[in-house]
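so i finally got all the pieces together for this one. its two components total, 912 residues if u count the protein bits. some of the lines might not be protein, just check the labels. i wanna see the whole assembly predicted at once instead of chain by chain like last time, that was a mess tbh
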Amino acid sequence: MMSCLDDGRFHGELGNGLSSDGYASIEDAVKVLLQGLGEDTNREGIRKTPFRVAKALREGTRGYKQKVKDIVQDALFPEAGLDNKVGHAGGAGGLVIVRDLDHFSYCESCLLPFQVKCHVGYVPSGQRVLGLSKFSRVAGIFARRLQEPQHLADEICSALHQEIQPAGVAVVLQCTHVHFPDIELQILDPNHQGWLETIVSSGSGVFEDKQADDWADFLGLLRLRGTVMEKLKFRRSSDPYWCPSLSIKVSSAIEPANPGMVAAAAKIIKSLGEDPLRKELRETPRRFVEWFRNFQNKPDMKVSGFLCGRRDALSMNGEVDLNSKRVYAELGIPFWAQCEHHLLPFHGVVHIGYFILDGFKPIGRSHLQSIIHFYGFKLQVQERLTRQIAEAISPLLGGDVIVVAEASHTCMISRGIEKFGSNTSTIAVLGCFATEVTARASFLKTIPSPASPAGQ
Amino acid sequence: MMSCLDDGRFHGELGNGLSSDGYASIEDAVKVLLQGLGEDTNREGIRKTPFRVAKALREGTRGYKQKVKDIVQDALFPEAGLDNKVGHAGGAGGLVIVRDLDHFSYCESCLLPFQVKCHVGYVPSGQRVLGLSKFSRVAGIFARRLQEPQHLADEICSALHQEIQPAGVAVVLQCTHVHFPDIELQILDPNHQGWLETIVSSGSGVFEDKQADDWADFLGLLRLRGTVMEKLKFRRSSDPYWCPSLSIKVSSAIEPANPGMVAAAAKIIKSLGEDPLRKELRETPRRFVEWFRNFQNKPDMKVSGFLCGRRDALSMNGEVDLNSKRVYAELGIPFWAQCEHHLLPFHGVVHIGYFILDGFKPIGRSHLQSIIHFYGFKLQVQERLTRQIAEAISPLLGGDVIVVAEASHTCMISRGIEKFGSNTSTIAVLGCFATEVTARASFLKTIPSPASPAGQ
């Protein structure tokens, strides 16, 4: 198994990764996908999207072209240890752990990126140690491919063991996959964060036995950085699905997936150098297209005929004294959208503020959720989504409206910039929220802050 | 001021950044610096250090060669806004914030890297918005130079304003600089984390006035990610020093800095394309050498003559029943070291465990601190440091010793891998700590974990 690791599973000819041939075939496929959503591929916002997607996919899977040996060979350093009778330290038995290495990978089941927090440990032997940065570089080689968490952990572990020849290597990966939109579930659970986590591990040598003392040391050291493994559930082999696409029932009986789009997705997989007929990849194009078609282009909502009773009730009141109004806040309504620049999901929550008068019931949360989903489930940018939600709800809510969208963008982690902790916020303000900073401030203060626990 | 931004302050000829000429002159200078510490530049661990340092410095200052226009020009998208009478949203007045962008920069006062958490906001105008990832890319252009926090914030702000032409741009930077070793201070304050934080801000257009409503909105949105500005102190112009090298008194009267080393440091600055005679850089080579010479090579400690009374006392007891011993833990002793592979600091804490018998006083913390500093203040790797500490204290403590080092490596954030949250742990175990997993586990449990607050 180890002998083929260096070669990966790459079959294509990528040259320097900038080969226009390879780009062109992905770009063509992306155009087919965009047309399948009913989009005009000459529209300004998406005109260069096929190129951006091709570039991001190529960079994001460049691990196929990289060799572990190239990374490791210049970074093995002689390092004294202790006589085994005295103890274990340094280059002979001294456990080394590198924790919290952030990476991303591509899910081989659905083609979406997933985040990987990687912890690696090893017990050196033979009086030599590996430069610390190389654990991250080697993990990156295998992460930047189409992957599945357990397979990724096994590959990192085997490759490090082969190159370092230590007493043993241990790998723990905390993988987070974007959830798939499920409107019912999200309405039931407003705190739904949109992430699925799975934890996998792999061990070689002294770490081969999960009950070995070395694992106790390794997990004891992970705890020092706050990774408390007792609280986390490792995936068992009886949990077959980690990617949500695998648990979605094939809806082909109702609405068959567009065969042209499925063929285009298969063409992309092939262009990355993978074999679309490999067992794990055979259904991936269909699953990707099922996900992707959530974002079908659709004509604008007829807001005037939607919940109009509410608007009439409020507009009857005409201009009211601001001081007699109070801010009503509907917080943390989940949303989903697909970034039209990179064809990657962004998701988060929308907070809505408006004024209500005594005696009037606030608008139902599920109605707001429906409007948000209507504008979310299409190719979007966060600025536009925020404006569209504000414009749609404003006539229903008397014209004084603030909308704040808080989002994680998959495109901010899974391309060159790799800004793992970053997050984006957008605001749209109408009526007195546009003119009164105190109205905005009093609304923003109602939104809970993650780092301001109760009592602070 | 804005007109010269795109050109930066780069004067050299770097070509593709891999020019062997540029590398060679930095490599030669690094050799002089290593020799100045009394190191043998042919020693295996540091033989390739000059090349690694040259490569890291070149990559870390590649911002001199990058142009903001190249980043921004393809990423300005038409985006509808609202009629100004109705409100503000999208491409006309809809505030956008991108938070928590992790970067690093190089301190122009001392040449050490510092971390930057960058928050950028802008108010679009003219119905156009900038692709979200570009805020990070533009910040990166200016971060990857020799910098000072306020200047960095101003450059990011001005460049974004010039290219986007929005209603205004706001930038907040949380910069953390490695502290300089100060043995007295650290012994007094065992929880000293080794970082200095400063917060700076810059605003253009509607953000020019710090009292403007737009700043209230911006800070209100930062709070949603836990960045509570009221708790943080912005740097005032009356706080002149943020880099600790600027507050160190010139010790040249006592021990003049090696002129050859200072000239070598100046040569490095010049090779990066900077002007060593620029006002802010004139004293930088001397300051760098002052820092660097903390890590002078020195002969091994004569441990046998050090604290030997303690060893005698324990050795008199001979082999004692393990069950009658109890683990004594000395936690969180700060350490400093210089990574010999990259000539960058790594620092953190050492936890020491040993057994004491009833009636014996534990060894003094300041004695342990002295030993740790002796081995820390030289060119090191963490594995060796841990072993050397364990070997040095073992004879003083009866032979049953566990040493855990927890460290942040500046080289893990300030080169290509940029793994901002990563952290490394190493263990050395002697005597029964090498053989008994329960002894190790009971010691590790005494170390507090950051994410296990009291009560969990």
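Chain B has two domains: 2-294, 303-445.
The two ends of chain B are 54 Å apart (CA to CA).
anyway lmk what u think
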